[in-house]
Amino acid sequence: MRNRLRVLRAERAWTQQDLAQRLGVSRQAVNAIETGKHDPSLPLAFRLAAVFGRPIEDLFTPDE
Fold first, then answer.
1. Rounded to the nearest 5 degrees, what angle is found at the Cα of 22, between the Cα atoms of 43 and 29?
2. pTM value?
3. pLDDT tens digits, one per residue of 2-61
4. 27-64 in b/e burial notation, b at 16+ Cβ within 10 A?
């Protein structure tokens, strides 16, 4: 699954640590999701969408 987390995070000038604190996860977890090494759980995907104020579909797209 592809995601736009890095771009959305950069638009807000947040570090991975900033985003991790907002989500209640580790910086390593944010890095793993951004780089595609890990897909977030559904509850975490909803938290990400809420933090960015966007629907989940704006953050994640399936691999083709």
1. 65
2. 0.90
3. 999 999 999 999 999 999 999 999 999 999 999 999 999 999 999 999 999 999 999 999
4. eebbbebbeeeeebeeebbebbbebbeeeeeebbeeee
